[in-house]
Amino acid sequence: MQAATEVRREYAARGRATPPQGMDYAVDTGLHGLGTRPSLPAYPVDLIELHESIANLLAAQENWEGAYAHLQTALRLARDHDCTALRLPEQHQREVAELRKAHEQALDASMRDELTATYNRRYLHRQLVDLLTDQVDIERGVAIALIDLDHFKDVNDTYGHALGDSVLQRVVSLLQVDLPDGGFCARYGGEEFVLVLPNISARQAVTTLERTRARVADHPWSALAGGLHVTISAGLVHHATHSGVGAVLPETDDAERQLRRADDLLYAAKRSGRNTVAYRKDGAIRLAGLDDNCR
């Protein structure tokens, strides 16, 4: 069921091997079959679905104990032989529909950065776990770029935090212009962002990031404030799949390791003078526009 899947994926995304004791049993032995159990009556809304919806909402709010309690209740009801008494009146069905809508909105909000409305670190890790460990359609590989605004502290100190917030919002809109299908931007923290570009070759990733860098540098920032100029630096890593339909990475080659690699390359870009994209080719660190013909 969706609630069980959400809880399990959340624990995986947070680096925890298993949910609380007993939850795996509920997930594997009971809730997996709720939708197909032949003894359940064929109507769209019942108490089982109500408890599942509540569990989803609680999981979105990171209330794991409460979510688990409702999962257990749903499992108990599914095992009840007298399921014919579980039907909800129409008014309650509407309440359940509203609850589900509220859950979807809460779940989406929990995956978004409040200031920039782009995805947040929580969403980033969940998606990277899927991309880097599942058999997904990433035939040409996955690129991950860690991006930092150059001298952003000076922007806040000179123009104030309100304008600094506007700069962050504008940068996010510029970062998302040239994304491939399935690509996304996430705020990593402060003035750092991550671009994830699935199903893209290493060369295409470098070209895409270089265009993004130039787009930010060439933006008319003085329209926000006189004398304002904003640039970005980026560290870019690319993982090439080992088969034509996607590949499973070794356990040590996880999302955190890829982000650490990107961070090392971001540091190299900063040391080189900023406003550039650093990546590796043939084991050596290269700078887009300086070591190739991207610019």
UniProtKB/TrEMBL annotation:
It comes from the Bacteria. PROSITE patterns: GGDEF. One of its GO terms (molecular function) is diguanylate cyclase activity. One of its GO terms (biological process) is cell adhesion involved in single-species biofilm formation. Pfam families: GGDEF (PF00990). GO terms for cellular component: plasma membrane. SUPFAM superfamilies: Nucleotide cyclase. Residues 1-23 are annotated as: Disordered. CDD domains: GGDEF. Residues 140-282 form the GGDEF domain. Residues 1-13 have a biased composition (Basic and acidic residues). NCBIfam families: GGDEF. This is Diguanylate cyclase (GGDEF) domain-containing protein.
